[in-house]
Design a protein that fits this description.
511 residues; alpha/beta; 5-stranded parallel sheet; 4-stranded mixed sheet; 18 strands; elongated
């Protein structure tokens, strides 16, 4: 009789239940795994055989057949090892109550000596188990911290196959066992915290950046409303410094954001023992030689723009990126998601971040009116073409940054700290939270919400109309300026968008 054990797999970042059916029958000794598994799944046969020998259990001299259902979807990963192993042991009559197998989602890679090793996507599997009313999940010890972020479901960490079998046979009191594990982990985390404090590293702060008050103000607006920003300026004017410090003025991540971001990093295999969860906002800074797939993702991997979820996506030296690569970012920046479609399958990755693009204005690095600029008009025009109109339309704020004057460089005046700016950002976001009753930010308002929350008086409307005509702004830019105006009003704690708010928003457009 075939015995079923439950595990999971994923397509993109979406997970689904996999029923691992294991059947032992008489015949020539053979071990087959069917159900469209990849090479890692096929190789699990050798890991399991060796594991049986090293834990003192004879591998059955029978026909062993494993089916991964649904069988019409391609599966990948080594996390099926533990569930397959448990299924074979159950067929040998070594698990007293087979019904216990229906209560748990079982995941983990096994080593040759029977230890259970960490795998990808554990938090995704835990959420899936909760949604499908499983009692709990059995996960590798190393993945326990990410799995226990999900409340309302039993998370049982195991270090070995033998421990797993004892738990399923109810030879171990689960509550006492889990409490013991928690104490072990707490002790380790306490030691790591002490070590981090001893090896203190200086934090990035906005006070490090001299001058550039307009750019700092634009960064504050971007942080408050979730707006994308384009910095263009001279070499050494502080573009990269500001971009790297943007995360320091963003509010701390909520539990929902931590779970959402950790899911992406877990399924991408980017979590570690040192960083089992993503509790700080990500900052992704891909090199300009990055390929299109590395930025937006593919069927088998998440792109950099998705890894920046709830954080900052920084593209330095924008002009050096391939034109095709930049154009591939237009739709994700507009729709808030990446859809990768192939003949038989389609995956969707979320895109929710603040995108910061930075570039020099000309090939030589300086503005065309600067005596240091040695480029011809033709070279400048060719260079500017790399920033297509549609791509710049996705940027809510446009800021020109000139190199600092000597008075600013040698100034001893202390600039405003990140902590002070962060407080204003948090207040503005709190206003948006009350307005939308969700985590929606001004940058993501719909047409209907713009009409409702971005009303302006007649005089302001007249100035806006003149600006649109003079600056040749698109309909998309019309909406973005209103969104930025709404954020500026929120920073000023103003219920309505006033004329000065709109004028400031217009100031952050390319002249």
């Amino acid at each position: 009789m075939a015995i079923s054990v439950f595990s999971y797999s994923y397509l993109g970042v979406e997970s689904y239940i996999v029923e691992v059916e294991v059947d032992l029958s008489n015949g020539l000794p053979v071990f087959n795994i069917v159900g469209m598994g990849d090479l890692a799944i096929s190789e699990s046969k050798e890991r399991i055989r060796s594991c049986f020998k090293n834990i003192g259990v004879d591998f059955p001299i029978k026909r062993v057949l494993v089916n991964l259902s649904p069988a019409n979807i391609k599966k990948k990963g080594s996390h099926f090892d533990l569930s397959i192993c448990v299924g074979i042991v159950a067929n040998l009559g070594m698990i007293g109550n087979i019904e216990n197998l229906k209560k748990y989602l079982i995941i983990g890679e096994i080593s040759l000596n029977g230890e259970v090793k960490s795998v990808k996507g554990v938090i995704n599997a835990t959420i899936l188990a909760k949604e499908n009313n499983f009692k709990g999940v059995i996960v590798p010890f190393e993945n326990y911290n990410e799995a226990r972020l999900i409340e309302g479901i039993d998370v049982i960490p195991v270090k070995s196959v033998v421990e797993t079998l004892k738990i399923l046979n109810e030879e171990i009191e689960i509550e006492d066992y889990v409490e013991k594990i928690k104490r072990e982990i707490s002790a380790v985390q306490k030691n790591e915290e002490i070590e981090r404090n001893e090896n203190f590293e200086e934090k990035l702060d906005f006070s490090d950046v001299k001058g550039q008050f307009l750019a700092k103000r634009a960064m504050e607006i971007a942080a408050a409303g979730g707006h994308n920003i384009f910095l263009i300026g001279d070499p050494g004017s502080g573009k990269s410094m500001l971009a790297k410090r943007l995360v320091t003025i963003l509010p701390d991540m909520s539990n929902e954001e931590i779970i959402e971001t950790t899911k992406i990093y877990s399924v991408s295999g980017l979590l570690s023992e040192e960083n089992p969860i993503i509790s700080k906002r990500p900052f992704r800074n891909p090199h300009h030689s990055s390929t299109q797939v590395s930025l937006v993702g593919g069927l088998s991997r998440v792109g950099e723009i998705t890894l920046a979820l709830n954080g900052v996506f920084f593209m330095d030296e924008l002009a050096e990126f391939a034109s095709k690569t930049l154009e591939s970012l237009r739709q994700p920046l507009e729709d808030g998601k990446v859809t990768i479609s192939r003949a038989a399958v389609s995956v969707v990755y979320p895109v929710k971040n603040i995108t910061v693009a930075a570039s020099n204005p000309t090939p030589s690095g300086y503005f065309s009116d600067d005596p240091l600029c040695i480029d011809s008009l033709r070279e400048i025009k060719r260079y500017e073409k790399k920033f297509s109109g549609p791509f710049l339309d996705r940027m809510d704020l446009y800021v020109e940054m000139r190199r600092l004057k000597k008075e600013e460089i040698f100034s001893k005046e202390e600039s405003e700290s990140s902590e002070e700016i962060k407080k204003r950002v948090e207040k503005a976001r709190e206003i948006q939270k009350k307005r939308f009753k969700t985590g929606l930010l001004n940058a993501n308002m719909s047409k209907r919400q713009i009409a409702k929350y971005c009303k302006i008086d007649k005089d302001t409307q007249q100035i806006f109309e003149n600006a649109i005509e003079k600056m040749k702004l698109s309909a998309r830019m019309h909406d973005k300026i209103l969104k930025v105006s709404r954020t500026i009003a929120d920073l000023e704690n103003s219920e309505n968008i006033e004329m000065e708010h709109l004028l400031e928003a217009l100031n952050y457009r390319k002249k």
